[in-house]
């Protein structure tokens, strides 16, 4: 069981709201920019799932490590990668956080210990094991937060990683963002056991399911789990139940789910609910929301301007960073 | 174990040279650890890590479950986390279970992150046929790895390289894959007590010759040297080049040799179609076409899964007599 969420104070509530609105509006702008062909390739929007990235990142210290998925704009922004560098990466510019090599799916930041969006489903989990092993062997009090979708639990790498983490008692927090669809395949059509948190028990690991649409619940659950993992209690799994409001990518006609289902989930979306509750409980009012919207809008415009005016990487630099410069003995 | 390690017996095995290399790395760099299936209590499937657990303990000689993707990925993560992991994969066939991690993470993260992260992991694995282990333990897939930008691929064929390549690989900031041919582990030779790091980008001329260039690597080197000896008895002086590094390829050494001998035969235990031998010949044709006096030739494995029965296995692989025949044909004596 997880502790009931303590109600946030006004400052905390404004931070949570700002964090979620910042991701929502950023991605809405990205979708527009995709339509204008400013952004190309795959673009996987996190819209509907913002409470998870915002809630979890608050529980981490700057020294902790984050391993994310290809739907990681929210994680990158909530972790603190500047929006300018993220937007420039979407454009493929040299000033992007991956120097234009990664794009939407491969955002990295060494200083923030952000080990990338990984576009192989479950491919990041073994990396998280290794990062945590390195921390343990070097006696660093770090936690590695490893995000993945519920589609990843069908992969062998999920099970191998869960076993290794539990076997070696590593400081990993597994964060399963269960949005019910692996691209177009519903969970109940791909898993014999659809209770993802139950899978943790097979590895002797605590596993709990949380309403991933409630940012205060995500926040408090993540705080508790991170503290326990950091204290040496071994790995844990949080299943964060959520929903993706947009298509899987910009190429998805969404033939696999009903519009009514999407609309029903939107009514319990993380922003709608938090705004309703925040106003009801007088954490903030419409004026506060408008102020946050203005701040976010200005930040997004600055990020777009930065990306637009940034330089392209010269083609002469094409093969840089395939290998590290190294004076061979 | 220390006594055994410091024993300056002049003749030791390739296996012992590898073990000394591991021992030296573990002794000198606290960031180094060894991880893989049965590397600890069992002592390594090919007994390379025998005794290391007792000396360095289970944190640094880390037995893993049968989870190739999991523990190879964990080594990549540990490298990102500041350690210098050495992973042992029992055979190249099993490495396919970890190919996702090696290709999609180890080889790409530096480039994909715009140069922010390097992945200094060393992956050792056994390769090759000759022990009648049949079609799931005997293949030579080095070229699959040599195809991948971002990796360095090494094939130590001598005791000096078995002792030295790992040492150098551990100073390299990028992922290095080391292939140890199963028929080399018991090869004995002298090794200087102070043998250590070797450079890992140059090919080596193992036997000089003027008439034809034989290019090979790894487990095919002894066979190729055997063939060169037979050819010398018939008056054909073959130059034998040991590639040592399969990526990057030391193209200048090959081109320089072929420009002198004007003939080339490549010996490669990989299958002929899509082989490293094909890549080498393509480069020679691109760069030294007008230096050639004869069409290039290659001696590769036959296009079958490696069979169990001894006579069939032998027939599937490059052998000295096949190399001799190929050279004679290139010399116009066939």
In words, what does this structure look like?
The complex is a heterodimer of chains A (329) and B (334). Chain A contains eleven helices and eight strands. Chain A has helices spanning 10-35, 50-57, 73-79, 83-91, 124-137, 156-167, 196-201, 215-233, 259-267, 270-280, 286-309, and strands at residues 65-69, 114-118, 144-149, 172-178, 181-182, 185-186, 207-211, 236-241. In chain A, the strands form two sheets. Chain A has a six-stranded parallel sheet, sandwiched between helices. In chain A, strands 5-6 form a two-stranded antiparallel sheet. In chain A, helix 1 crosses helix 2 (50-57) and helix 2 crosses helix 8. The longest helix of chain A has 26 residues, at 10-35. In chain B, the strands form three sheets. Chain B has a seven-stranded mixed sheet, sandwiched between helices. A five-stranded mixed sheet of chain B has the order 9-11-10-13-14, sandwiched between helices. In chain B, strands 1-8 form a two-stranded antiparallel sheet. The mean pLDDT of chain B is 96. Chain B has 14 helices and 14 strands. Chain B is α/β, with parallel strands linked by helices and 334 residues long.
In summary, what is this structure?
By secondary structure, chain A is α/β, with parallel strands linked by helices. Chain A is built from 11 helices and 8 strands. In chain A, 44% of the residues lie in helices and 12% in strands.
Low-confidence stretches of chain A: none
Q: What about the largest sheet of chain B?
A: 7 strands, mixed
* Number of DSSP strand runs of chain B: 14
End-to-end CA span of chain B:
53 Å
Beta-strand residue percentage of chain A: 5-15%
Estimate the strand proportion of chain B. 15-25%
User: Over all CA atoms, what is the radius of gyration of chain A?
Assistant: 20 Å
Q: For the largest beta sheet of chain A, what order do the strands appear in spatially?
A: 2-1-3-4-8-7
Beta-strand segment tally of chain A: 8
Rounded average pLDDT of chain B: 96
Helix content range of chain A: 40-55%
């Amino acid at each position: 069981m997880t502790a009931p969420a303590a109600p946030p104070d006004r400052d905390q509530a404004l931070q949570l709201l700002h964090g979620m609105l910042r991701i929502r509006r950023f991605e809405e702008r990205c979708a527009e920019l995709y339509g204008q062909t400013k952004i190309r390739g795959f673009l996987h929007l996190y819209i509907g799932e913002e409470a998870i990235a915002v809630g979890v990142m608050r529980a981490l210290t700057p020294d902790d490590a984050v391993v994310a998925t290809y739907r990681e704009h929210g994680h990158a922004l909530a972790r603190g990668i500047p929006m300018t560098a993220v937007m420039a990466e979407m454009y493929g510019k040299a000033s992007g956080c991956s120097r234009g090599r990664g794009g939407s799916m491969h955002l990295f930041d060494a200083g923030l210990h952000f080990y990338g969006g990984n576009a192989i489903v479950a491919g990041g989990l073994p990396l998280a094991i290794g990062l945590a092993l390195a921390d343990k062997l070097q006696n660093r009090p770090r936690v590695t937060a490893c995000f993945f979708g519920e589609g990843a639990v069908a992969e062998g790498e999920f099970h191998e990683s869960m076993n290794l983490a539990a076997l070696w008692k590593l400081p990993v927090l597994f964060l399963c963002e269960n949005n019910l669809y692996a691209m177009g395949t519903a969970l109940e059509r791909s898993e014999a056991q659809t209770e993802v948190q139950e899978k943790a028990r097979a590895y002797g690991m605590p596993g709990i399911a949380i309403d991933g649409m409630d940012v205060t619940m995500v926040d408090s659950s993540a705080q508790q789990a991170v503290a326990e993992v950091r204290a040496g209690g071994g790995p844990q799994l949080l299943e964060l139940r959520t929903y993706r409001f947009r298509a899987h990518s910009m190429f998805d006609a969404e033939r696999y789910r009903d519009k009514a289902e999407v609309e029903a989930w939107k009514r319990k979306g993380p922003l709608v609910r938090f705004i309703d509750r925040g106003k009801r409980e007088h954490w903030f009012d419409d004026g506060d929301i408008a102020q946050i919207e203005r701040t976010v809008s200005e930040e997004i415009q600055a990020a777009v301007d930065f990306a637009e005016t940034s330089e392209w990487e010269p083609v002469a630099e094409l093969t840089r960073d395939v290998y590290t410069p190294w004076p061979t003995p | 174990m220390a006594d055994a390690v410091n024993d300056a017996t002049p003749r030791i095995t390739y296996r012992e040279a590898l073990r000394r290399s591991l021992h030296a790395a573990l002794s000198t760099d606290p960031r180094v650890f060894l991880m893989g299936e049965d590397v600890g209590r069992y002592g390594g499937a090919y007994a390379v890590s025998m005794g290391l657990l007792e000396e360095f303990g289970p944190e640094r000689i880390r037995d893993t479950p049968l989870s190739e993707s999991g523990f190879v990925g964990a080594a990549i993560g540990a490298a990102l986390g500041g350690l210098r992991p050495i992973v042992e994969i029992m055979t190249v066939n099993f490495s396919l279970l970890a190919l996702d991690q090696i290709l999609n993470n180890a080889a790409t993260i530096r480039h994909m992150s715009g140069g922010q992260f390097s992945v200094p992991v060393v992956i050792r694995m056994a390769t090759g046929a000759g022990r009648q282990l049949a079609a799931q333990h005997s293949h030579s897939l080095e070229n699959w790895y040599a195809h991948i930008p971002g990796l360095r691929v090494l094939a130590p064929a001598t005791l000096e390289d078995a002792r030295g390549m790992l040492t150098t690989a551990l100073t390299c900031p990028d992922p290095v894959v080391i292939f140890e041919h199963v028929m080399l582990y018991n090869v004995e030779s002298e090794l200087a007590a102070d043998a250590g790091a070797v450079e890992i980008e140059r090919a080596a001329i193992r036997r000089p010759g003027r008439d034809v260039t034989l290019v090979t690597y790894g487990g095919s080197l002894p066979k190729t040297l055997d063939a060169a000896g037979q050819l010398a008895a018939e008056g054909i002086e073959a130059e034998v080049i040991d590639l040592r590094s399969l990526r990057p390829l030391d193209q200048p050494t090959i081109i320089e040799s072929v420009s002198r001998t004007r003939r080339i035969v490549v010996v490669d235990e990989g299958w002929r179609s899509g082989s490293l031998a094909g890549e080498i010949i393509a480069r020679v044709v691109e760069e030294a076409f007008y230096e050639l006096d004869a069409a290039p030739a290659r001696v590769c494995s036959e296009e079958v899964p490696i069979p169990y029965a001894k006579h069939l296995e032998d027939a599937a692989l490059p052998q000295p007599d096949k190399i001799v025949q190929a050279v004679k044909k290139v010399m116009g004596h066939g």
